[in-house]
Amino acid sequence: MTNATDNKVVLVTGGARGMGAAQARRLAADGAHVCVADILMDAAEQLVEAITADGGSASYHELDVSNSGAWTALISEIERKFGRLDGLVNNAGIPMRATLMDLSDDDWRRVMSVNLDGVFYGVRAAAPVMRESGGGSIVNISSIAGQIGYHATGYAVSKWGVTGLTKSAAIALAPWKIRVNSVHPGLVGTVLMEQAEPAFIEATVRATPLGRPGESEEVAASVAFLLSDDAKYLTGSEITVDGGLASCGAYWQILERRAELA
Ligand SMILES: NC(=O)c1ccc[n+]([C@@H]2O[C@H](COP(=O)([O-])OP(=O)(O)OC[C@H]3O[C@@H](n4cnc5c(N)ncnc54)[C@H](O)[C@@H]3O)[C@@H](O)[C@H]2O)c1
Fold it and tell me: Which of 40, 192, 194, 242 has most ligand 1 atoms within 8 Å of CB, for mutation?
């Protein structure tokens, strides 16, 4: 049983909806107090009410992850209110579909500021309190776009940055007993997926050996594992939750194409 988040205080960014909300629900069900941080305050409040109604413990906090000062203020607030911080999930992220030649300076800066600066600020702000709490676990939500070549340049570079930051932080924070790992979802059914072009979704599902998009709860299960003591020897690692798309998708498609050509 993975229930080692009992009585831990865990902060989930972008926790108001989508995968972050699934992570918050799962971690609260596992016994953690979950700090749900987001820019969508109404949704965050509703989620916290739902978690509390189910017997869990949660609080909501306003945070724009791209604002370094806001991170410092939130971590101080958590330390004051709860006296500790054991886990951080850097989940907040935005899509950016533009490819290399169509990517404007502003869009490049915007995707970097949320997807990469936000993770850097979070790791740096949270680590000292986690150290005082006796150590902890940080999970950064990257993407398979941070493991393989991907057409949306700004998004891919931001997520590769998260992969690299994770491994670098794992070295820096090991002496403080803080583990740092990344999770790499493939196509997962959230608002982000609903906004994508239907043909792109269909083609992606066809390239996925397990033949369907992932569920937010399936990603949350890997996050809960990495936060738990069951993962106490994992740091600097990548967990890919993609139905086999990144590692086996090429040959999956080659076999399908061969069947068509034969
Ligand atoms: N959905 C997918 O297929 C998929 C695949 C791979 C990786 N991801 C990554 O997973 C994470 C969650 O994605 P999702 O699909 O649940 O998206 P989502 O849009 O449903 O949720 C993202 C959450 O982040 C919040 N957020 C956005 N900007 C923020 C900011 N500046 N400060 C604080 N919060 C902010 C949003 O308000 C929202 O609650 C993202 O990092 C995304 O890049 C998603």
Answer: 192
Whether the CB of 40 sits within 6 Å of ligand 1: yes
For tokens 């690692």, what's the residue? 237
- The C-alpha atoms of residue 68 and residue 136 are separated, in whole angstroms, by 21
Helix, strand, coil content of the chain in percent (nearest 5): 55, 15, 30
Q: Which of 72-86, 98-112, 126-140, 184-198 has the lowest mean pLDDT?
A: 184-198
- What are the catalytic residues? 155
pTM of the model: 0.97
What does the alpha-carbon distance between residue 121 and residue 59 come to, in Å, rounded to a whole number?
21
**215 ligand 1 Cβ < 6 A:** no
Tokens of 180: 């740092």
Q: How confident is the model at residue 129 (pLDDT cuts 50, 70, 90)?
A: very high
Tell me the CA–centroid distance for residue 256 and ligand 1, in Å: 32
Structural domains of the chain, ranges and CATH numbers in brackets:
9-194+213-244 (3.40.50.720)
The residue-averaged pLDDT of 155-167 equals: 99
114 Cβ inside 6 Å of ligand 1: yes
> Which among 122, 203, 211 is positioned nearest to 169, based on CA atoms?
122
Distance CA 231, CA 224 (A): 9
Of ligand 1's listed atoms, the one at least distance from the Cα of 191 is 20
**Residue 206 · residue 186 · CB < 8 Å:** no
